[in-house]
Amino acid sequence: MEQEQRQMSDTVFSNRSEKLDFFTIFMFPFKYYYNGKKNTPSKIAQIITDKNKNWRRDPFEKASPPNYNEFYYFHRYVRKAIYDTGDEKSGHEVMAYLVRDDYKMLELRYAVEVEFHKNDEKVFRSETISAKVTSINLHLFDNQVGVLTIVTERNLSGGPISFNDILLYNDLARRIYPPYLGKKDSDWSAGDEYVEQILSHDSAAAVPKLSSKIFPIEVILSGEGCPSCDDFEGRDYKDEKGHLSSVIKDILSPFIFEPGLDGSRADDKRLKEDSLFFSSFTDDRMFVVSYCSDDDISQAFCSKQRIRDNYHLSKDWYKFIFVDGGSAGIANQEMMEHLIMKHT
Q1: Of the four, 58, 151, 253, 321, which is 20 to 30 A from 136 by CA?
Q2: φ, ψ dihedrals at 4, nearest 5°
Q3: If pLDDT is split at 50, 70 and 90, which confidence band does 198 have?
Q4: Residue 117 pLDDT more than 60?
Q5: Minimal CA–CA distance to 178: which of 144, 145, 213, 202?
Q6: pTM for the full model?
Q7: Beta strand ranges found along 121-181 (DSSP E)
Q8: How far is CA 160 from the centre of its chain?
Q9: Is a pLDDT exceeding 90 seen at residue 22?
Q10: How far apart are CA 128 and CA 135, in angstroms?
Q11: Rounded to whole angstroms, how far apart are CA atoms 198 and 127?
């Protein structure tokens, strides 16, 4: 019985449906630096909007009753951290909030294994997932910490998609550079004709490089102006001092990426006067908050196996919680169940 339920769940998660929709928020925290005078959030926001007209400051308006009630629900010290009131004159400004709406679509191309094998070699092809960009926001705090958020959504009009597609999308789109890859691991080609290319090569070239398994082939952010894209090819990541996706760099313009900054006096020579710099706070991935809506998937997770609900034992639910796009990154079944129970 349990085996039959598992097979039914696998079908639900892999089948592409017109009814499934989801949205995902990607969060990129960073440290920023300004070598000029008066580095308040308002000052930094003014420099950003002057140098990049796609950014605009968006203070919180308390005029409407819902906004007023929301604002005064929180303690005073909490309001300062989550709302930009535009009140720089008070001397208690903590955060400035900016938005941009020129980017409209996020397109992710990635490699998937196909059911064709030659000499027991794995063969991959490329597929694409596209999602609408609903907002791109920037929080600048007075301790020189910034948080970039990218909100994407795929609704019912976006065409059929599976739960497994969502897992891959969340896992791959959040990656901003590959971990511990040398040039030999990152030099690879993949595309619509990738399967045919593999079949015409010898066995040594038939196995995709490491980067094709853990990283997208290409990320494209498009909209009103020139698209921003990164294909992560041809770099020796092991020898570089620091790397960050071109998409993140383009969004954060006019900030200049300068890895390794720590705010010490030794950094002063690296910072040009009246320019903005930033360095990454995270490892190779952004933080993710994701929501998925589908009746069949919910029913599969909540179906009973003996006494407990199915999601307690589900690797698919584990992968959704911990953003694993491929296999679940855990080997011990008991530990997996414990983590699911703790975080659900």
Answers
A1: 321
A2: -65, -40
A3: very low
A4: no
A5: 213
A6: 0.81
A7: 124-141, 145-154
A8: 22
A9: no
A10: 21
A11: 16
Q: What pLDDT does 320 receive?
A: 87
Tokens of 315: 């690797």
Angle at 29 between CA 26 and CA 35, to 5 degrees: 140
E-strand stretches of the chain:
21-34, 56-57, 95-100, 103-113, 124-141, 145-154, 218-223, 228-230, 256-257, 276-280, 287-293, 304-305, 308-309
Q: Which of 212, 239, 193, 214 is nearest to 327 (CA)?
A: 214
| pLDDT confidence of residue 1 | 43
| The pair of three-digit structure tokens given for residue 57, joined into one six-digit string | 């400051």
Angstrom CA distances, 307 to 215, 270, 302, 303, stand at: 39, 62, 11, 10
Give the model's pLDDT for residue 339: 87
Tokens read off for 177: 């550079």
Q: What is the dihedral of CA 233, 238, 241, 244, to 10 degrees?
A: 40
Per-residue pLDDT, 195: 39
Whether residue 25 contacts residue 151, with contact meaning beta carbons closer than 8 Å, is answered with yes
Q: Phi then psi for 169, rounded to 5 degrees?
A: -60, -50
Q: Does 255 score more than 90 pLDDT?
A: yes
Rg of the chain over Cα atoms, rounded to whole angstroms, equals 23
Instruction: Give the integer Cα–Cα distance in Å for 225 and 230.
Output: 16
pLDDT band at 12 (very low <50, low <70, confident <90, very high): low
Q: Residue 4: which residues within 8 A CB-CB, separation 6 or more? A: none
CA–CA separation, 150 and 63 (whole Å)? 27
- Please say whether the beta carbons of 251 and 228 come within 8 A: yes
Owner of token pair 């959040």: 174
